Amino acid sequence: MPPAPPPPLPPSTAPTGASAGARPGPPPAAATGARTVHVGDGLAFLAAGPLPAGHAIVTSLPDASELPALSPEAWRAWFVDAAARCCAAVAPTAVAVFYQTDVLRDGRWVDKAHLVGEGAARAGLACLFHKIVCRAAPGTATFGRPGFAHLLAFSRDLRVPPALATPDVLPALGEMSWSKAMGTAACEAAVAFLARATACRTVVDPFCGLGTVLAVANARGLDAVGVECVRRRAARARRLRYDPATGLA
Hints:
Radius of gyration: 17 Å
Number of helices: 6
CATH class: Alpha Beta
Oligomer: single chain
CATH topology: Rossmann fold
Strand order of the largest sheet: 1-2-11-10-3-4-8-7-9
């Protein structure tokens, strides 16, 4: 297992549109939501206490390549535990949404959807949907990573009526802010689900990277809170903007 998480986030974290160290309340009336990005450890942020009922997690957990100090076995244990902590942090009627891409290691596929499901089950959450996001056109051979990614949502008490069902296959990933980012089309699907089927109006990404999830949430009128351990990335996550017509900027 990785070392114990660091102490609570320092007061020097710089917010955009909200007070530092505070989790934002209901979204403002303006079309663009508020955004706060902390520099620190995402799991330490979640350990500070349960998220308010109006907050949902939308995130992508780090791959083993981003945690080189861990052995494959230790990374797997860390990954399942991180998924469980994310799921445990949301309120009973809120949701945790994960975007994950499998990887080929030593000739064996690492099924991250299965690992996320293990963590969700440990936290007592049920799967609301499991969608496939096409990373490459059907019929295209890929190497090392599959031509698809997983988009999964979990909740303890929320159930989605059949009338609110959406397609199980997203034909395109959308624009990516960097090689490990969640594409804008996948972000749009997650944010639209929150707005349509839940009471959540604040998106929390404890592993926000360059902030694509945050930017898409803001563009759709939701508040967003991100946590990123690399200060340079956190600074970019505060600045990233998304326009559905023109993309990321």
